[in-house]
Amino acid sequence: MPGENNFKPLHTPLSQADVRSLKAGDQVRITGLAYTARDAAHRRLCLALRESRPLPFDLEGAVIYFVGPTPARPGRAIGSAGPTTSSRMDAFSPLLIASGLRAMIGKGCRGELVRQALVQYGAVHLSALGGAGALLSRHIVQSRVIAYEDLGTEAIRELQVVDFPAIVAYDAHGNTIYAHGGT
User: Fold this and answer.
1) How distant is the alpha carbon of residue 96 from its chain centre?
2) Of 70, 129, 137, 181, whose CB count within 10 A is highest?
3) What are the boundaries of each domain within the chain?
4) Is the preceding peptide bond at 9 cis, omega within 30 degrees of 0?
């Protein structure tokens, strides 16, 4: 892969120093735990936070991947695992970021309130290549449902990722890779 040596390694959980060192356009490789969550799971996480109920995982330094993976083939940890549209989580992301979430992985632009929260609380939004779910799944070595099993493919999963590739789309300094500023 061209530019293979240009990837910055990230190990979860992420610190504010980790994410503040990143710039829009940086290519990263993530190793450690990440969690899956889409719209319905985000709604439940935010409700739990508002009601001061425990969460199924510690948000501090966490990475959430916006994905609804397909079932795993025999011998694989997970099926196709391509990113979903990030803006669908915009209503929920600021609260999660304020509660310690350090990175999100998805595709597409983010809204103004999310971008403000990234800067205020020291977090980043990463983009993964849409349409490459089968390729991305090779970087997921373990997967298990940890919450909201009734949501099926949208249940929260804990993933063990190794060198998961992404690009910093929005950094903690207010910069973006999108020419139009992400609106």
Assistant:
1) 12
2) 137
3) 4-170
4) no
Chain segment 113-163, per-residue pLDDT in tens: 999 999 999 999 999 987 778 889 999 999 999 999 999 999 999 999 999
pLDDT computed for residue 4 by the predictor: 56
pLDDT digits (tens, 9 = 90+) for 36-81: 999 999 999 999 999 999 999 999 999 999 999 988 989 999 999 9
CA end-to-end distance (rounded Å), the chain: 31
How are beta strands 140-147 and 156-170 bridged, if at all? antiparallel
Helix, strand, coil percentages, rounded to 5, for the chain: 30, 30, 45
CATH class of 4-170: alpha beta
Quick one: tokens of 70?
A: 């397909």
Q: Give 85's DSSP letter.
A: B
User: What does the H/E/C string look like for 102-123?
Assistant: CEEEEECCCCHHHHHHHHHHCC
44/148 Cα distance (integer angstroms): 9
CA 70 from chain centre, in angstroms, equals 17
